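SAMPLE LOG
Freezer: B-3
Tube label: C17
Construct: single chain, 148 aa
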Amino acid sequence: MESLSKLGINAFIIGPVVSLLISCASAPPAPPIYDLTFQHLPRLQIAAGSIVLKSAYQPDEVENQIDTQKPQNPTLVVKQWMKDRLERQSGSTAKLVLTIIDGRVVSKQETQSATFGFLTSKKQVYSASLVVDVAYYPAGMEIGQATG
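STRUCTURE (predicted):
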């Protein structure tokens, strides 16, 4: 009978400790990834029958760039913007060419200290750059043709 009461006391003491350790061991869930849209903005009337998207940007993995790892890489962001915002003029032979020049996203980890250096915290800071060249080619003018 005495060993049964010791077993009950041990279970009473160890049970909460084990459940506390288990609850602390699990990682928090990843934040949800939301779709990036521009549908809340007004559409733009473009006097062009076709819109072409090109990318001259090449990511550099050496400089801590994470642009290719994110769910919204630069090409997809501009493509979604074109779909949501630009309205083509039917029947026009003019062309609009958008070329992505720069689309880097760089991640930096910063450490902050509180009063007397007792508390430190780290935060993730992202710096993004998106540069798009827009060229309009009127009807009859080919892409790359010089304007004289």
